[in-house]
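Pilot study result, target chain (194 residues):
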Amino acid sequence: MSSAEKKPFSIEEETPLAYFEKLVEFIYDPWYARFLRRISARYERAKIPEEIELMPFFVDSLIFETFIDRKTPLDRFIEHYQAQLKPRQLKIYQRFKTSALGCYEILERHKPDRLLLRDLLDDSPVEVHDGEAWRYMMPGFYAICRLLPYEDSLVLTGSCAVLNYKTREEVLALAREFKHPPLFVEGESRPASP
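Predicted structure:
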């Protein structure tokens, strides 16, 4: 079943992960898979430590940074389900458009889900509320991750590399391997369903 033929929108649990999983379900389709191949070709695996799982970064790049005939898969998802989404749900997905991949120093951890990060590019503090990430992000480490706005806070998507590096320069050098300009593809509109 292609994403264009997916069942009606429904979400069982109002969590950031549940909302994000709906996007992943939407792109789980052979038509989108070919764009994942193009995205993966942009990464120089030899410059990235083997223990970093790249597929979540590829998926995030596809959803948020790949413009297929001027629309991201997130744009297409919103168009496809707009009539079915409640106003609150639509607002959540529209805010996802402001997500950003960044590079951070992990400063503090507070139970049950609060993390304080520092953006390595401008030294600004960033507060994240994410119970899952809280378990593995330790102060003194660094992270290359995508922050997703959800309601009144920020959460992480699955694309998160936690790094135990000595200097921020090392982290920034690695972060450059993950930061690519958006991918623009023209003439690739999905064929109409029969």
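One observation from the pilot: Residues 73 and 79 are 10 Å apart (CA to CA). A full batch analysis is planned for the follow-on phase.
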